[in-house]
Amino acid sequence: MAKEKNPEPKTNKPAAPVNVRSISEEEKPVRRRFPGPRDASAKLRVAIERTAYAELIAHAKSSLDAEVCGVLAGEVCEDDEGLFVDVKALIRGTAASQASTHVTFTQETWNLIHRTLEHDYPELSIVGWYHTHPGFGVEFSEMDLFIQRNFFPGATHLALVTDPLSGDVAICINTAAGIQYLESFWVDGREQKCRVPARSSMKSEEAPAGGAPGGSGDRLQALEARVSQLVQALDDMRGFHYRFMLTCGFVFCLALIAGVGYTIYKQLSSRYEPPQLNSYVPVPVQIGDKTVLIGVGVADWKVPPELNALLLQEDLLKQQAEEKAKKEAEKTNAPQAEATNGAPAAK
Ligand SMILES: [Zn+2]
Predict the structure, then answer these.
(1) What number does CATH give the domain 8-210?
(2) What is the 102 CA–ligand 1 centroid distance (Å)?
(3) What is the pTM of this model?
């Protein structure tokens, strides 16, 4: 191997070694039964308490854009089957550790984690770490493996990654053969399947030996996944926009058709129809010495309401005019009548 140096620390990883004293495995395993089935078998049995798991999901779902991280607090235990890890609580990493797109554990984050651990969970120790990959799967990146190797090197140190969009969970542990994926873990005694990426643990062990190509390939894949996500989002947005415009156009056309239809209907229904002759009766009339037939026609005319109203108004006006004329005539007649009262026999 020409390359002896690990190429990884070139990226945005903390250059200075950070204080990881309290995650060493100095404590003796607690002797008790595994909180799950007797026949549970795995490279390392991992039990997560219900509340801790709920907290993990809640923290993961709290950020669907940026990655979030934190540590797993619990106990390393032992029963007849061997060692197992019991995760009892989570300690969330601070926002400062999520400044970059990829999570990092800064000294500041570690200080806060240790303070929280001492204050809230003095009886527990750090048994691993977790972080999220929102929307791009649960495959461990080179950076993730770097963190695991350098900060969580113990045989019972877990690395958990979850994708809040797919709900997938993957857990890696350190084994003699390198970092490997677990196939299941137990929440409240019930088995949960882990996601084991297709290019499984074999790849993660080849990567360090292969050096930069593996790392950059990994990053390239993550980038590709992100780009395809963005393209998908863009397509979705475009599709939504198109559907929205289509709906608007459809509604507009519908309104136009309805308007035109109503106008046509209105015109048709209110068309003035000429009177229609219903019956015709000839009446003989004697004029002088000649008999003449006079026709009397009975016409049927549906008077449209507008016209009817007009006719009625005209009638009313006529009546009023007549009454007025009558009154005026009376007025003018009255003085004459008085004047001629003295001589009634004028005729
Ligand atoms: Zn990661």
Answers:
(1) 3.40.140.10
(2) 7
(3) 0.52
* Centre of ligand 1 from the C-alpha of residue 291, in Å: 119
User: CA 111 to CA 19: how far, in whole Å?
Assistant: 8
β-strand 125-132 against 82-92: which pairing, if any?
unpaired
How many angstroms does the Cα of residue 127 sit away from the middle of ligand 1? 18
Residue recorded with tokens 């907290």: 55
- Beta strand spans in the chain (E): 30-31, 45-48, 69-79, 82-92, 125-132, 158-162, 169-175, 178-181, 184-187, 190-193, 276-287, 290-300
* 18/150 Cα distance (integer angstroms): 10
CA distance 169 to 49: 15
Task: Quote the ligand 1 centre to 133 CA distance (angstroms).
Answer: 6
Map out the domains of the chain as residue ranges. Answer: 8-210, 211-271, 276-332
- Compute, in angstroms, the gap from residue 84 CA to the centroid of ligand 1: 24
Beta strands 184-187; 45-48: pairing state: parallel
For residue 97 the two structure tokens come to 């550790």
Per-residue pLDDT of the chain (347 residues; tens, 9 = 90+): 433 444 433 334 444 444 444 455 556 888 888 988 888 888 899 999 999 999 999 999 998 888 888 999 999 999 988 899 999 999 998 654 444 556 777 888 888 889 999 999 999 999 999 999 999 889 999 889 988 998 899 989 999 999 999 999 999 999 888 899 999 999 988 999 998 887 654 444 444 443 444 456 667 777 888 888 888 888 888 889 999 999 999 999 999 999 999 999 988 877 667 777 788 888 888 888 888 888 888 877 777 777 788 888 999 999 999 999 999 988 887 766 555 554 454 44
For residue 30, give Cα distances in angstroms to 77, 122, 188. Answer: 4, 15, 18
